[in-house]
Structure prediction request, 257 residues.
Amino acid sequence: MFTSNLLKTVSQSLAAALLLGLLLAAPAQAQRKSKKGTLANSDGSLAAAATTPGRPARLQPLFGGLSPAQATQVIGEKQLKAIAASFASTTEASEFFTTKGYEYLRENQPDTAAYRFNVAWLLNPRNAEAYRGLGIVASAQPTPDAAIGLLTKGLELAPTNSLLLSDLGTTYLIRYDQTKKKKDLATGLDLLQRAVAADATNAAGWQQLARGFYYQEKYAEAWDAVHKGQAQSVTSLDFTLISDLLAKLPDPQGTFK
Prediction:
């Protein structure tokens, strides 16, 4: 499964949440700074630090840091124009390739998914879902910095997107799990609270908010968030978190014992 490599390098329950969020709430189907951790350049390309030596550029998020003009040469200008000509607009074409990228992620084909998201970005650099998809792909890296950079860029384009908010918040929790820096925890909690405020049906967002509250030792609030997520989707439940919570505070609702 696609998550296997990811789970080897970061906290299992947190890392799985990115893919769980993808499965629970996919984007609508198409018809046919630089501060530390922010790896996107001003032109939308990825900073060189995020590249992976030896891997083809087309399989790396945002072509491994190429400018749009350079990335066009990788695809081939004629081929890119032919792709765009098959749709009513480049925006529609970009949405189509984003949708295909998510489909390939679900089918355990992250390289093919990355290429589709890259094409989507090249067709429309303002497609927030292309950044979200590439952020999920990048979460397989040993550290979450590249994923944070990509998801941040997507959120700049769609600041109220609940899924982007919860994915980015979860990724900050992954970094907190590694670094124990309180700033990462605070940022993650803020993003997750914004995510569920934007869409109270975001089940994965509730579960990861519960994890954040657990880290803060706010166990009653963590249980409340667990149950709110459970009410939206039972499959969102993080049983590792539930086990951890039970060791600190019995479930106030008595559902889990």
